[in-house]
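User: For my dataset I need records formatted as: sequence, then structure tokens, nothing else. Please produce one.
Assistant:
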Amino acid sequence: MVENKITKNQIEYIKKLEKGNEERGQKIKQFLKDKNKNSIEELTIKEASELIELIKKIKSDNMGDLYATGKQISFIENLQKNEHAEKLTENFLKNKNKETVNFLTMQEASELINELKKIIDKDGIQKERKITEKQLNYLKKLLKTEEKKELAYKFLTALNKNSIEDLTSKEASLLIDKLK
């Protein structure tokens, strides 16, 4: 059975973990020697994962640079239950200039976990999000005629809502579809 070669992200991550940390550099050299490999590029995905876990245990010289733990990364992946959570994670990574969750620091991973937990309730169901600003502005544009205002009023009454600002994002999408 041929094992898959190390990924580009794993190579970059190992190099980033090693940067400026002599103890980690020594651990990598010893690991390669033990595996009869000349460079990290010769490792398999499985071996690279094993190496990453080993060198992450070695304290960084800069506490702010401690990378997310395997437990944090796993928890983040488990919270990816819907498109909204995936989009939130994608935007978070983009804002932090990170390619994957593997490059997050422990602090950043904690921040992301807290953000994800806000949109997922204890049963793993996405919490109802409020109407977005974009939806609200679009609805206001659609409500130009009396006929559409009447249709919106009936929709709101059926949902026992006082105004379009009280709608959830999902309800706003339904109303937008009705008004188009």
